[in-house]
Amino acid sequence: MRKIAIIGIGQTKVHEHWQRSIRDLAGEAIFAALEDANRESVDAIFSGNMLSGLLDQQNNLGAVIADWVGFKGESVKIESACSSGASALRAGMIAIASGEIDSAMVVGVEKMTDAAPTDVTSALATAADSDWELEQGVSFVGLNALIMRRYMHEYGWQHKDFAPFSLNSHANAAHNPNARLPFAISEKQYLNATMIAAPINLMDASPTGDGAAAALIVPLDSLRGDQRAVEIAGSGAATDTISIHSRKTPLFLQAAYLSAQSAYAQAGISLEEIDFFELHDAFSIMAALSLEACGFAEQGQGPRLGLDNEIKINHGRIPICTMGGLKARGHPVGATGMYQIVESVQQLRGECGETQVEGAKVGLAQNIGGSGASIITHILKIA
Amino acid sequence: MRKIAIIGIGQTKVHEHWQRSIRDLAGEAIFAALEDANRESVDAIFSGNMLSGLLDQQNNLGAVIADWVGFKGESVKIESACSSGASALRAGMIAIASGEIDSAMVVGVEKMTDAAPTDVTSALATAADSDWELEQGVSFVGLNALIMRRYMHEYGWQHKDFAPFSLNSHANAAHNPNARLPFAISEKQYLNATMIAAPINLMDASPTGDGAAAALIVPLDSLRGDQRAVEIAGSGAATDTISIHSRKTPLFLQAAYLSAQSAYAQAGISLEEIDFFELHDAFSIMAALSLEACGFAEQGQGPRLGLDNEIKINHGRIPICTMGGLKARGHPVGATGMYQIVESVQQLRGECGETQVEGAKVGLAQNIGGSGASIITHILKIA
User: Fold this and answer.
1) Per-residue pLDDT tens listing for chain A (383 residues)
2) Burial of B131 (0-12, 13-18, 19+ CB in 10 A)
3) Contact criterion met (CB < 8 Å) for B78 and A77
4) Which of B2, B85, B100 has the alpha carbon at shortest distance from B50?
5) Which residue in B has a C-alpha nearest to residue A85's C-alpha?
6) Contact check, Cβ <8 Å, B242/A63
7) Which of A62, A86, A58, A83 lies closest to A74, judged by CA?
8) How far is CA B31 from the centre of its chain?
9) Helix orientation angle between A84-97 and A333-349, rounded to the nearest 10 degrees
10) Cβ B332 vs Cβ B50: under 8 Å
């Protein structure tokens, strides 16, 4: 496949943007990415979004966003629940690789916080199996709680063993001006947080948020000495059963494994070369499962990396969630995958200040839709 | 762009499938397309759907459908309101053209009829501008009624002048076993039909429906003497303002014009070579506007083609809606674009019996999302 590079990025703060429409949020990120790339236009727009139909009474979002930014060309929305952002990036990459277009704007956008909380809970549950899971009355957090409980039982972990994931994300978010929860937390705060769906408490769960993140992509071979360009060296996508009960085990993210293997092979990169990992810590159990599926820990041993300080910036083997992750940067669901990409570009450009991974050359980003049903993995490196 | 061919098609009847889930409908069309192509698998699945989140409490539909058909690879949903089906086809084509995959299943699927009618009306309205149109209390039919009323005023047409569009679609649907309303209607029935949103009456408006239509696509150059293969010779997509009031005129479908021009240029085909046109007659006014934007009539003169019998099979200049169109085959919104493609393949293979366009070599299909905000045009021809 023709190689692709990111030449511009933009993002809004993840926040409660009650005064702003979803198209306005997308527009801010898009215009910022155009300015960052010093370009005025693109050939097509690909948007990732999950909930605009349910929470904003707005479908046809591709046309809505194109209209807002004054564009009349091709513009479509891709939806794969919480992995919509990374799915949109893949759609944009593939379109450029096909030769049909020579530049694309990819934007992930979501607006969730000014709807009624019960509506948001119901809307998020549509990422799971409506016919065979939701039918039983379980929420999306509830499904993840079942996985976490089984994991703790199977491998002998205590709830407190997951604390490092949450503490690490919050510590990193404290330095990210775009984070939803830009503050560090203590282990005591983690342990005493309000229970949501046992064993998942408020500090195991990522917050909802409103926000947009965008990247302008072009063919790598069209660049002439752009020192800030970042290559998308590998991209992989895979699916797994939508119902967790249909899997051989609920404790292994097979689609994470398959999509990561595709991305590693495409990039020709080994695990040792990866300098940081923007993973999908929607819940702390997902951080553990992602680390395992991607090869950084044995099955059942993900929490060990946190306990051994291996996930910290400039200290551990594999820094994760360097800008706060879903847990503390926030999780505007359909936008999250593009926040991971934008933050990876910031790291590779060396623009992260206090949370800069020194000498970072290769980054991994993994975006999960549903409880592992749709997973997309990207590898970014300095072009 | 690498050339693409359709080697298998499948469809369900458009019907009130109250006993069947959305994944089951998609699966029926997919398995039929696999069997038709004599293949057992594909490299990726692209689904077009608009309303599963709102009416089935099911997002992440790409993963849901992949799961149902036993597939673990890449599977995503594309949404562009009522043009989701054609958007999915373009996504599949582009993915093959990129070299990332060598075969794709494209399926359009929708399940609408066992939700409360008021919920369906609200859901369909999400194709329009939530912030600046729906806010005023207008429904989607209401928006089209405003366009039709203005069109009649501007060009001097009477309501009865639109009758041929409805009569033609119904007459053709009578021979299509998969049609939702497989019966002819009289001009009297048209004129006396229940008013919905003046001047649009029940016979100007397409019915909702449940259904799925699928096509298996591969690179054209991978085929060796497949006599039934149909080439996708041209594909174009464009957008227009989401709000109708933002357009220079509400009476010209600019995105239809732009996407058709792209498709014509890509296919290297002139208007005279087109043997039939599967157009998006969601409302009879849209049939007139599509014919005009695609070059078959002057602006304001679309109804003339109907009155002069130019839209009839084996009689007129440009037969339209040969299997019943949206009006009578039915309009399961996110699936419609793929029904148009599947029916075009049936015509080009010469499998249409009573409604066969004799000697058909080239077909045009145009799918509209919103009241002209997202439009995709495809040209198919015998490979």
Assistant:
1) 789 999 999 999 999 999 999 999 999 999 999 999 999 999 999 999 999 999 999 999 999 999 999 999 999 999 999 999 999 999 999 999 999 999 999 999 999 999 999 999 999 999 999 999 999 999 999 999 999 999 999 999 999 999 999 999 999 999 999 999 999 999 999 999 999 999 999 999 999 999 999 999 999 999 987 789 999 999 999 999 999 999 999 999 999 999 999 999 999 999 999 999 999 999 999 999 999 999 999 999 999 999 999 999 999 999 999 999 999 999 999 999 999 999 999 999 999 999 999 999 999 999 999 999 999 999 999 98
2) middle
3) yes
4) B85
5) B76
6) yes
7) A62
8) 21
9) 60
10) no
CATH architecture of A4-116+209-222: 3-Layer(aba) Sandwich (3.40)
ipTM over 0.85: yes
Contact call for residues B76 and A383 (beta carbons, < 8 A): no
CATH class of segment(s) A124-206+234-382: alpha beta
Look up tokens 């023709």; give the residue.
Answer: A2
Distance CA(A142)–CA(A119), nearest Å, equals 16
Distance, in Å, from the CA atom of B195 to the CA atom of B124, rounded to the nearest integer, reads 19
Q: What is residue B115's DSSP assignment?
A: S
A194-202 contacts at long range (C-beta below 8 A, 24 or more positions apart): A196/A141, A196/A145, A197/A139, A197/A141, A197/A142, A197/A144, A197/A145, A198/A145, A198/A149, A199/A145, A199/A148, A199/A149, A199/A152, A199/A159, A200/A141, A200/A144, A200/A145, A200/A148, A200/A283, A200/A284, A200/A285, A201/A159
Instruction: Tell me the count of A-B CB pairs closer than 8 A.
Output: 212
Supply the pTM of this predicted model: 0.97
Indicate which of A24, A76, A84, A140 best probes the interface with B, i.e. most B CBs within 10 Å of its own CB. A76
Identify all chain B residues contacting A217, using CB atoms and an 8 Å cutoff: none
CB nearest B79 (choices: A67, A77, A125): A77
The secondary structure of residue B210, as a DSSP letter, is B
pLDDT tens sequence across A92-133: 999 999 999 999 999 999 999 999 999 999 999 999 999 999
Q: CATH assignment of B126-206+233-382?
A: 3.40.47.10
For the record, the structure tokens of B140 come out as 């989607």
Domain assignments of chain B as residue spans, ordered by start: 4-116+209-222, 126-206+233-382
Alpha helices in A38-130 (DSSP H): 52-56, 61-68, 84-97, 117-125
Token reading at A292? 């395992």
Distance, C-alpha B223 to centroid of its chain: 27
| CA-closest candidate to residue B223, choices B382, B383, B45, B33 | B383
| Catalytic residue set of B | 82, 331
Tell how many helices (H) and how many strands (E) occur in chain A: 12, 11
Sorted by sequence, the CB contacts under 8 Å of residue A77 that are 6+ apart come out as A47, A48, A49, A59, A60, A61, A62, A88, B78, B79, B80
Q: Judge whether B211 and B335 are in contact, CB under 8 Å.
A: yes
Q: pLDDT tens-digit profile of A354-372?
A: 999 999 999 999 999 999 9
Residue B302, CB half-sphere, CA atoms under 13 Å: how many? 26
Q: How far is CA A101 from CA A73, A91, A274, in A?
A: 11, 12, 30
Half-sphere exposure of B47 (CA within 13 A, CB side): 31
